[in-house]
Design a protein that fits this description.
This protein has helices at about 15-40, 45-75, 80-100, 100-105, 110-140, 145-165, 195-215, 215-235, 240-265, 270-285, 290-310, 315-330, and strands at about 170-175, 185, 190, 265-270. The chain is mainly alpha-helical. It has one domain. The strands form two sheets. Strands 1-4 form a two-stranded antiparallel sheet. A two-stranded antiparallel sheet has the order 2-3. Helix 7 (about 195-215) packs across helix 8 (about 215-235), helix 10 (about 270-285) packs across helix 11 and helix 10 (about 270-285) packs parallel to helix 12.
Length: about 350
């Protein structure tokens, strides 16, 4: 009689210490929120900063989620990801400017319709750009990390220069749609309407991505490809097509993030995506390669920490996220929730 195969213990069979270690990444967010409250002292200031941090984190997550899947599934270090953020912002803002009558109307329906059309246009353009980027620039350097860094940085520079050609070299200032201007007051705290919208969009997108990855066949293939690509190919699936699809989806999400970040900052520049790549890579690294859940937690930690530290000690804000990444990697060298081992 053959022995039954060993199975990985389920969460319910783990010891208390093992359960705490497993759940700790998810507990970091409430722990940071409580520490922020104790350090800030003022409930109204704390609530305002928390909403701002969550909004910032959600937008970083949108930009980083596609990159972390590309990292995990394709083993590609794509420094050109920031170019999709910039292009998405410029395309989306161009649509919003063209729909000035809609964004200037005191109608939530017209305002949201304008944003929706801007987002759709940005995602379509950046998705198509991502397909071309993968075909021309990334495909020839699969498996060669140094070459990937060189050619994707070159692609980033070229696309930034093309933005200068099409839209000009100057930064573009934009106004948010009329009904998203200003703030709402709750418990004495002023919370900007747009930041509340950003939190909602980020949550919906995270839930949708989680459901797609866990409840659909394509999601199963993607997750299996991240963990063991050769085995998935041996089963007859065309993982190469999945690679391209994930790259296009990641590029489109970067475009969505670019539109939202542009409206958040109310100004866009050709180099905005390049500047965001520092935070995006920090999130992808501390979350764990290939992990959408890890990227989500990491992005919220980055957003909350930067807002809390900027309020308490502005001079330390620039290094706070580097310190966060260092601490997490010393604790878990492969990130908080890695799907694949570091390569």
């Amino acid at each position: 009689m053959t022995a039954a195969p060993d199975h990985k213990p389920t969460f319910s069979n783990l010891s208390l210490t093992e359960r705490l270690d497993e759940a700790m990444p998810m507990l970091l967010i409430p722990i940071l929120v409580v520490l922020g409250f104790l350090a800030i002292g003022s409930p109204s200031s704390w609530l305002t900063l928390t909403v701002s941090g969550l909004a910032m984190g959600m937008m970083i997550f949108i930009m980083a989620s596609g990159l972390t899947l590309v990292f995990g599934l394709m083993d590609v270090i794509n420094f050109g990801h920031g170019a999709f953020v910039s292009v998405g912002a410029f395309v989306g803002v161009s649509v919003l400017i063209a729909l000035g009558d809609w964004t200037g109307a005191a109608s939530l329906l017209l305002n949201m319709s304008a944003i929706f059309l801007a987002v759709v246009a940005a995602m379509m353009v950046t998705g198509a750009l991502g397909w071309g980027f993968e075909r021309v620039i990334v495909k020839p350097v699969y498996g060669a990390h140094l070459k990937q860094i060189l050619v994707t940085v070159g692609g980033l520079i070229v696309i930034e220069q093309l933005i200068h050609v099409v839209w000009g070299p100057d930064e573009i200032f934009i106004n948010r749609p009329e009904t998203l201007k200003g703030a709402v007051t709750f418990a004495g705290a002023a919370m900007e309407k747009y930041r509340l919208l950003a939190v909602g969009i980020g949550l919906v997108l995270f839930i949708a991505m989680r459901m797609v990855l866990r409840r659909t066949k394509i999601g199963l293939i993607v997750r299996a490809g991240v963990e063991n690509g050769p085995m998935v190919e041996a089963l007859g699936y065309r993982l190469r097509m999945v690679f391209v699809g994930v790259f296009i989806a990641g590029s489109a999400l970067a475009g969505l993030g670019g539109v939202m970040w542009g409206l958040y900052q109310e100004v866009i520049t050709a180099g905005m995506g390049e500047k965001m790549m520092v935070l995006v890579f920090i999130v992808a690294i501390i979350g764990g390669l290939g992990s959408v859940e890890g990227a989500f937690i990491g992005a919220l930690l980055v957003g909350l920490l930067q807002n809390y530290v900027a309020f308490l000690e502005p001079k330390l804000a620039l290094v706070s996220n580097i310190a966060l990444m260092t601490a997490i990697l010393m604790w878990r060298p492969q990130g908080m929730m890695p799907v694949v081992k570091a390569k």
